[in-house]
Task: inverse folding
């Protein structure tokens, strides 16, 4: 398993149509449980995925799920471990305070695309 999706039930179904497995989460508790399940196969001491376990290399989630995960998600991103995290707007659109990719590029290199 290379990709996995966390988000609204409708988007989980849409991602399944293109071959990406997923799990719908409806609140913060569900989000934390699903996130731990996906990242638990990572062995901190070996800095690698445990042998014989399916791996998730890219975890796609809605911005709402990312907000629910809060500090846990930030700590995971700063740890340089797989899976990599990709945030997408949910069905209700972009969450306040989240940047677009173009905004992030402009901030990083100072060039508007």
Result:
């Amino acid at each position: 398993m290379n990709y996995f999706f966390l988000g609204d039930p409708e988007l989980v179904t849409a991602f399944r149509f293109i071959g990406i497995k997923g799990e719908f989460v409806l609140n913060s508790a569900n989000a934390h449980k699903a996130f731990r399940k996906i990242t638990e196969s990572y062995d901190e001491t070996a800095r690698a995925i445990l042998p014989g376990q399916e791996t998730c290399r890219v975890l796609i989630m809605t911005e709402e799920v990312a907000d629910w995960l809060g500090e846990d998600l930030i700590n995971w991103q700063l740890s340089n471990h797989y899976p990599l995290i990709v945030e997408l707007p949910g069905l209700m659109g972009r969450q306040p305070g989240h940047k677009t990719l173009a905004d992030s590029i402009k901030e990083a290199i100072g060039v508007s695309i």
Q: What stands out?
A: Strands lie at 3-7, 21-24, 42-43, 48-49, 58-62, 84-88. Residues 102 and 113 are 6 Å apart (CA to CA). The mean pLDDT is 79. DSSP finds five helices and six strands in the chain.
